[in-house]
Design brief:
Length: 136
Amino acid sequence: IALTDKDSWCSTGGAYTTIGATGTMSSSSIGTFYNDLWFTFTADNPFLQLELVPGTLGTNARMVIQDASGNEIYGANSTNEYKFVKEDLTAGAQYYVIVGSRIGGASTSYNGTFDLCLNDIPTNDYRQGAIALTDK
């Protein structure tokens, strides 16, 4: 699924679901996860803030971000890690976001809906958005 709008964009209403998905990602820093969905985006600049909002997927949610060569640049397996900020992406490069469940199978008790939020406009909370201090 291509993520093309990265300017303070969020999907809403549990736009995505692992229910019925059949993928299995078997090698990541956070272990195996199941029923995964793959998203892709092209970096427009070095900065990106991406957040997984678990919805009914809840604490079963897992997220990995990879570069085009399959190298993992981020892995999250708990709710306090679902917000990813990177300031050194390669502009023009393709990246992948993989979201799945920690437990496999068709049961909806392990699967559910989620949303994604993306922002590639840096604020002064980050180095890329630093405000220049000048002598006034």
